[in-house]
Each structure stands twice: as structure tokens, then as C-alpha cells.
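Propose amino acids for all 205 sites.
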């Protein structure tokens, strides 16, 4: 599987509060998307924790991430000098984590696109789209029929081919982590599915 480079502006509103301030920043930071490795884990944990503290995603410990490292893809590249530094020590490659996303198979031809997090200083620059596309490409390689997500930003996923569905129609295996969520009793996320088995198979590059 070839993962794509990111160079295009994308107003997908991964972080709607920052969208207006990003409208005039049309140049995306140079970066590349690849499978995650153990060296990425400290920054992945820090980025996920950054949003978990805002109650926007679940906390994941470094051991949790490492145990499922083969499910994740990351975007790495450069950051502005003034950007938030997630960890104190440098990555062996000398670059920075710009975003992360995972694909978690749950069985029955279904997999979850989860854990999408974009560095707050490079939001709305196409990185989220590239990460979700990489997870969808991985799902196709695994012959997964449908991918789903639970999200606070349905408009972004609609642009990636997902459609809103009633959460009650999802298989019970979908809810295996929900008990850990502080919003478990009053969930405000939208359930969305992309049926890959109903889409034409992409032509080889």
C-alpha cells in the first residue's frame, strides 16, 4: 500500500473553532503519511491526550497505543517554530507528528476509523483527509466491506464519503470501548458509515 503525501489545502473543519483563522493559510506543511512505529508512540500519546483533556476523544496510554501500533497511520513533517511541542525530546527522524488515525477491525466485515487527531497548529490543511484516506485504503487491502466512525465533526467525514446512520443499527461490537467514555450516558457523537463494498474498486496507480 502506498500512502500519499499531503500538500493541498482542505477546509474540512476538523477543528471548527480555528477554521476562520486558517482561511488565508493556503499552504499545507510538507509531510508524509506512513504506518506508525514504536518511535511515534510518545508523540501519539501526547497528541491524543491533548484532545482527551478537552473531552474530545478517549485517553490512550503509551502501552495501549503500542499494543495496537499496527492499526495506526501517522503524518509527519515540519512545524512552525512557534507551534506546540508535544514532547521534549526529538524524534529519531528529526521531524514532528502532525496527525494520527487508526483502523480497528471489529469483525463481520466491519472496521472503525478511530483516534483521528491533528496537531492544533496544522489543522484544516488536508492532513486529516489524507489520514482517513490511508485508513480506507488499508481497509480495502484487508477486504473490509464497511468502515464506520463515531465523530463530533460529521461534515468532515461526509466529505470523505461517509453517510450518517442511526447508531442503533451498528453491531454491538461497535460499543466495546464506549463504557470508558465520560459521555457514555449522554453521547453526542454521530455514527457514520462508508460502504466500501458498494463503491467501485479504484484503478491501480
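Proposal:
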Amino acid at each position: 500500500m502506498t500512502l500519499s503525501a499531503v500538500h493541498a489545502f482542505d477546509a474540512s473543519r476538523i477543528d471548527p473553532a480555528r477554521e476562520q483563522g486558517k482561511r488565508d493559510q493556503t499552504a499545507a506543511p510538507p509531510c508524509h503519511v506512513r504506518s506508525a512505529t514504536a518511535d511515534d508512540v510518545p508523540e501519539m500519546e501526547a497528541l491524543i491526550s491533548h484532545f482527551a483533556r478537552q473531552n474530545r476523544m478517549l485517553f490512550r496510554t503509551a502501552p495501549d497505543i503500542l499494543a495496537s501500533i499496527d492499526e495506526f497511520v501517522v503524518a509527519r513533517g515540519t512545524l512552525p517554530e512557534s507551534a506546540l511541542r508535544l514532547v521534549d525530546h526529538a524524534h529519531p527522524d528529526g521531524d514532528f507528528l502532525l496527525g494520527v488515525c487508526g483502523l480497528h477491525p471489529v469483525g463481520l466485515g466491519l472496521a472503525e476509523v478511530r483516534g483521528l487527531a491533528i496537531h492544533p497548529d496544522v489543522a484544516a490543511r488536508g492532513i486529516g483527509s489524507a489520514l482517513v484516506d490511508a485508513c480506507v485504503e488499508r481497509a480495502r487491502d484487508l477486504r473490509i466491506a464497511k468502515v464506520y466512525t463515531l465523530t463530533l465533526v460529521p461534515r468532515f467525514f461526509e466529505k470523505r464519503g461517509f453517510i450518517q446512520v442511526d447508531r442503533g443499527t451498528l453491531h454491538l461490537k461497535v460499543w466495546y470501548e464506549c463504557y470508558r467514555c465520560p459521555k457514555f450516558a449522554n453521547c453526542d457523537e454521530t455514527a457514520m458509515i462508508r460502504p466500501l463494498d458498494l463503491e467501485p474498486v479504484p484503478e491501480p496507480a
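The domain at 5-198 is CATH 3.40.630.30 (Aminopeptidase). The longest helix spans residues 127-141.
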